[in-house]
Description:
Layout: H1 2-21, H2 25-50, E1 52-58, E2 62-64, E3 69-77, E4 83-94, E5 101-109, E6 114-121, E7 127-139, E8 146-150, E9 154-160, E10 168-169, H3 174-177, E11 183-189, E12 191-200, H4 212-217, E13 222-229, E14 234-239, H5 248-268, E15 273-278, E16 283-288, H6 291-304, H7 314-321, E17 327-334, H8 339-346, E18 350-358, E19 369-370, E20 373-378, H9 383-387, E21 390-391
Parallel strand pairs: 2-9, 10-21, 14-15, 14-17, 17-18, 18-20
Antiparallel strand pairs: 1-3, 3-6, 4-5, 4-7, 7-8, 7-9, 11-13, 12-13, 15-16, 19-20
Helix pairs in contact: 1-2, 5-6
Amino acid sequence: MMINRIMYILVVLILIAFFILYVDRLSLILLIFSILISVMSLVMCAIARKGLTFNFTTTSKSIHKDTPINIEVTVKNKSYIPISNVVMIFEYFNSLDAKPHKMTITIPSTPKGINTISFDINSKYCGIVNVKLFQTKVYDNLKLFCMRKRHQQECSILVMPRVHDIPIVVENVSSEVLESNVFSKTKSGDDCSEVFDVRQYQEGDKLNRVHWKLSSKNEDIYVKEYSLPISNSIVILPEVVTLQNGSSISIMDTITEIVLSLSQRLNYMEVLHKVAIYNNESMSIENISTDEETYTAIGRMVRNGIPKESKVYAFKYFQALNEYQQYSHIIYVTNVLDIDTLSALEDFNAIKKTVLYVSNVPVDRNSLIYDGIQIVQVVEGKISECIGEFVI
């Protein structure tokens, strides 16, 4: 635009010199026309600016990470004046770190017409991405003038973490210690209070499992398979501690991905479990049995954002709430190995205790050895490789 202004001023100066040197009607007409055309361009730009309306939407309110966020912008021109350059400045940021990014889009606007354009933005981390139409600039057709127009339009998109493949082996020690009235639909067990299936007798089957009534009606012997109780005593406890020398958003992203991956895999294995979510001196313990419930819990984690605390609070809060509760397995996902917390976890009323320690800094193997607690270091971007086969 600056070049256009310089060129216009040079033309006007030349016409003024031409009028001074050659005093006639033609030189006067050219000078007046050069001045009027800029005035008319300014007036038309002002009229067109008033007649412009903007609207933008997103195709989805919730997407997975690494999926482009599609934004569709509609510009409506109510005036009869065409505009060759409508510049829209968008600002977007992830709520977890609030670092703003800007994107500029330029489109023409036809008179009494509607113009639509779409573009994609990406988020490296999970979280809530807020997109705002920060400002629009309307240029006249000669690009001599620019008129700004501020807006308050914005939208939010929930970016969910990526799911990693974590193989899980269910030992179901909880069924030996904790009572449960929920049974697996895919695996048989030894609980005689519930029949899982009836099949033909095989060598080695116990006689007390023979289904006498069914066998008497048929020429073959049938036995009963009992059900496998599954307990709701596995809890996943995520804890994000804000560190001065670390990237909190990347830590939050990794911990959220671990919780989502473990919970979804447990759902697939039909293992009921809980997810304990701490937020600002309060905690909600969600019962999880379906993927929908998992995503609801993960969405709550993301919306809560990164805790401001620089100390361990989630575990202490969970410990206070569950002083007399017994669990079969507590899975503590954290980015800090706190000695006091590990000591308290050692005394916690749980059969199995696992700490998934999220850190990219190499750790001495001796610091990962603690009585009664399995500690596994997880490096960002290598969740599946670090955790490996997970025993519940």
